[in-house]
Amino acid sequence: MLKALIFDVDGTLADTETAHRNAFNAAFAEVGPDWNWSESLYAGLLDVAGGKERLLYYWNMINPEEAGGRRVKDMIDAVHAAKTQHYEAMVSGGKLSLRPGMLRLIREAYAAQMPMAIASTTTPANIDALLRTPLGSDWRRLFVTVCDGSTVKNKKPAPDVYLAALEALALPASECLAFEDSENGLRAAHAAGIATLITPTVYTVGHRFTDALLVLPHLGDPNQPMGQHVPGADQRWVDLAALRRWHNGTLFEAA
Hints:
DNA polymerase, domain 1, six-stranded parallel β-sheet, single chain, 9 helices
């Protein structure tokens, strides 16, 4: 029986990756190094979870002799700090809307007293910048727990952030449903034993989602319905009743 929902943030709650890429490039222009990440390059870098980890990975790609030095660490810290400020300016105040159906579903689940959690590898500041306008300044009250990049040591595709969310929810994986947009996210949720609904973005549409419960372009809304009827739903958008039907009618075993 479905008893809780667990949401990834970047790419899932909102299509944030273009804003992240633009924020990185703005940070490079502000503090260095002399880099510029194209859309195609950034799509590949998204396989590395975490902003600082992504920066170090790229540094190792282009100049591995320098990547372990103190100067590189200091530069990465400076770039990441500047990038966070640029990202907040780009998405705060509702400048970046949530993906279709997400706001409606969160409100529906809260009204139905269904526990919800966030399981993300992004920073607390990034999550707050994105959610404090559409969900309100007290948005954290909607969630039993907010597990972010500071919560656990190992980031996705490791299952740690999902295991932390399950512990806070005090529920078994079999009674939860995760929402993700990427293969790394799916691998993390699946390793924790959680059935997962995938809504890819332009950056992740080519990923492998073999273990997903369902793959949809988005959740849909009355004013932005899907192009065809949604299996198990009474309309062309996903609601809590449809999620319960999919989850309860699926045999899903933990990895």
